[in-house]
Amino acid sequence: MTTMPASSRRPRVEVVIDLDAIRHNVGILAGRAAASGATTMVVVKADGYGHGAIDVAEAALQAGASALGVCSVEEALALRHGGIDAPVLAWLRAPGEDLAAGIAAAVELGVYSTGQLDTVAAAAAATGITARVHLKVDTGLNRGGAGPDQWPALVRAAVATCGIEVVAIWSHLAHADDPGHPIIEQQVRYFDEAYQVARDAGLRPLRHLANSAATLTRPDLHYDLVRPGIAVYGLSPVPGVSYHLLPAMSLRSQVAMTKRVPAGEGVSYGHVWHTDRETTLALVPAGYADGVPRVLTGRLDVWLAGRRRPVVGRVCMDQVMVDCGDDAITPGAEVIFFGSGDGGAPTAAEWADKLGTIHYEIVAGMARPRVTRTVHGRRPIGAGFTGTLVTR
Ligand SMILES: Cc1ncc(COP(=O)(O)O)c(C=O)c1O
């Protein structure tokens, strides 16, 4: 019997998550927030931007975060079922959500309108538990939230409605990745005015506004709490600036076989690429069904045996071919499609640039049924942990 090399027992394709990188990044972000007297809510929506919400939540809480932010009650309940008891804000309301289950599980709720407030109050009454809400003011993103015309009515209704506790008011920036953009100042002015309306109505809510970009570039906008997402995952929120963040996700495979091919041969479907010399081609068993975009045919490099090498010919559903020249490449050799970028290896940001999108979409889209997720750096969360949203 031939013994398989240990490396070939690795998954065919894997998304590898480095929780130590998450801890490192949260340490940077929470440190910046703490310097302004703010706490940190780490955003773990969309299964932690594709990194695994529960793993990321645990690592983030260990590294200095005190709360978690998600989109839906469903995502918040998944954290609770995963054993996370830190404060969780579910900020986007959608029809048909099980608000009562969220309130019973101490999930805090974003509220954008008096209609939503009524729905939350009804769910609170049904459970007999006061709902903790974060009122959203739309300061200019023109997405969700109460605009200037509706804000005073929302505040008055929140004060007057039984079973509602207003924890915070919050908003979201349209141009945070461009720290000097004048719209930011306009949004901040509206936000401060909205806060004054809340205070005049007798509320003393916390305030939160900053995403990753504002957390890193605008300490004056930290208020009581920051809400970083993308930077937690080690991806820069401001193009071209690193902030010493460490990318936490890499997409990896391994060489399945190699072959020498003479000059002048067409490679892969349609023969859109031909060898211009005799060369060694490595077959890597990862393709577009594994998240390697077919549209990157002819524009993709991988990191293999210590250097970048071009993927040649069409990206197929299950495999790609890599041109290795005259180098000796052994089956089982690791192949990195994107990752930390160390040594000049490809990154998710590079893929995003080539695809005309943002790195958020690359990592959040990597959860696929046949791609294994391998997590490094798990540490059990300390018994008795109690997170708190309120610092004062
Ligand atoms: C309301 C809200 N806050 C914070 C974030 C985190 O933003 P970022 O990933 O840019 O830090 C998001 C992400 O889209 C969001 O929707």
Please give the structural blueprint.
Elements (H helix, E strand, L loop, with lengths): L13 E5 H17 L3 E5 L1 H5 L3 H10 L4 E4 L2 H9 L6 E3 L8 H6 L2 E5 L2 H14 L3 E6 L14 H10 L3 E7 L11 H19 L5 E5 L1 H6 L7 E2 L22 E6 L2 E5 L4 E2 L5 E2 L4 E6 L16 E4 L2 E6 L7 E4 L10 E5 L9 H8 L3 H6 L7 E5 L16
Helix pairs in contact: 1-3
The protein binds pyridoxal-5'-phosphate (PLP).
Pyridoxal-5'-phosphate binds next to loops.
Overview of this structure, please?
The protein has 392 residues and is α/β, with parallel strands linked by helices. It folds into 2 domains: 6-13 and 248-376, Lyase, Ornithine Decarboxylase, Chain A, domain 1 (Beta Barrel), CATH 2.40.37; 19-233, TIM Barrel. It is built from 11 helices and 19 strands. The strands form 3 sheets. Strands 11-14-17-16-15-18-10-1-19 form a 9-stranded mixed beta sheet. Strands 2-3-4-5-6-7-8-9 form an 8-stranded parallel β-barrel, surrounded by 6 helices. Strands 12-13 form a two-stranded antiparallel sheet. Helix 1 (19-35) packs across helix 3. The termini are far apart. Bound molecules: pyridoxal-5'-phosphate. Pyridoxal-5'-phosphate (PLP) binds at residues 43, 91, 172, 211-212, 227-231, 237.
